[in-house]
Amino acid sequence: MEIDLNKLRDRAYSIAKAHGFHEKEVSDETYLMLIITEISEAVNADRKGHHANLKEFEFYEKQNEDKRFSSGFNEKNFREFYEFFIKDSVEDELADVAIRLFDFAGATNTDLGTVKYTPNSDIYRGNKLLPESCFILVERVVCICRNLFPSSINISLRDIIRTVFGLAESYGINLDRFIDLKMRYNESRPYKNGKEY
After folding, report:
1. Mean per-residue pLDDT for 155-172?
2. I want to staple 119 with a disulfide (CB 3.0 to 4.6 A). Which of 49, 127, 147, 166 is the partner?
3. What is the DSSP string of 21-90?
4. What does the pLDDT look like over 30-83, one tens digit per residue?
5. pLDDT (0 to 100) of residue 144
6. What are the counts of helices (DSSP H) followed by strands (DSSP E) for the chain?
7. How far is CA 143 from CA 12, 42, 60, 137, 180, in A?
């Protein structure tokens, strides 16, 4: 699958900016720590066995889009169904990891280009549990901050983003779809989502 990462970067960054997250500069370490917290939240969702029910979400979405049965699938319907069927699941948190990476790329004006991802490293499922794969992912995020990657930051970010997509795919998760849904959800959230940063 080929994905235009710059398009996702621009959308994530513009949503974050519109919600007040770029009013003051923060350090790279802050951005990267927020990415790590999202990785941790994916592990916690996995520990609880909390997975999205996309099939039910899409069933209700389709029912509510049919004008014969309702006034349409408005933002209130979307938010309610999203919070019930998807929010705080493994899929939702992996989407947040990618969105945080895209936002960081936007804040640092990093060109991500277009990438084709294929599972090809030690991070993917095989015999690994999600926490083990996520630990490897955290190590790669930390390497950006410590300048341990021999390549430039855009190649490093692109590699980590490709890794997140590959990890999701190895668990049968259509991350592209969950990123789109989460960005739509984020567009309707309050200023700074009620947080300090």
Report:
1. 85
2. 166
3. TTSS---HHHHHHHHHHHHHHHHHHHHTT----HHHHHHHHHHHH-TTTSS---HHHHHHHHHHHTTTSH
4. 888 999 999 999 999 999 999 999 999 998 877 766 654 555 556 777 888 999
5. 75
6. 8, 2
7. 23, 20, 42, 10, 28
